[in-house]
Amino acid sequence: MASLCFRTAVILALIAAGLALWMTATRDFRALPAEVVLNLLGWGSFMIYGLYYRSVAGAATVRLARPHYVVALVGVVVEAIGIAGTAWGNPFFDPIRIIGAFIVAVGFILFATIVFGTREAASQS
Questions:
Q1: pLDDT value of residue 45
Q2: pLDDT tens-digit series, residues 23-46
Q3: 23-32: which pairs have CB atoms within 8 A and are 24 or more residues apart?
Q4: What is the DSSP letter of 120?
Q5: Fewer Cβ atoms within 10 Å of its own Cβ: the N or the C terminal residue of the chain?
């Protein structure tokens, strides 16, 4: 699970970097909020998830670990798309952005459930 989260973080960071390059080349920075979501919720959160799953014994094997990963990833992607569409002025994307934010919140609730439900303490070196 940790490795999957690390790889996902890197992929999302690469997508964000590509979006940043595109915005710089076109001088159209309306997608900046979407790039922030991809970096913060994508790169940042998935790195933290991976570190938690790697450092806390048994956390990666709990029943909620896979659903958490899927929900968190879907939330980031949907929210980034919704935010980008809204930033470009298309009102069709407003509900997509809101749904994405809701899915992200559910992902954080699942992660909190895993953190507070994991009985093993973080491994000490």
A1: 95
A2: 999 998 988 989 999 999 999 999
A3: 30/84, 30/87, 30/88, 30/89, 31/84, 31/87, 31/88, 32/87
A4: S
A5: C
Determine what percent of the chain falls in helix, strand and coil, rounding each to the nearest 5. 80, 0, 15
User: How is residue 38 annotated by DSSP?
Assistant: I
φ and ψ of 65, to 5 deg: -60, -50
C-beta of residue 34 within 8 angstroms of C-beta of residue 19: yes
**Is the pTM of the predicted complex or chain greater than 0.70?**
yes
DSSP per-residue letters across 40-63: IIIIIHHHHHHHHHHHBTTGGGST
Contact 35, 84 (CB under 8 A): no
Q: Which two tokens stand for residue 123?
A: 């491994």
Q: How far is CA 116 from CA 25, 47, 56, 125, in A?
A: 45, 19, 12, 22
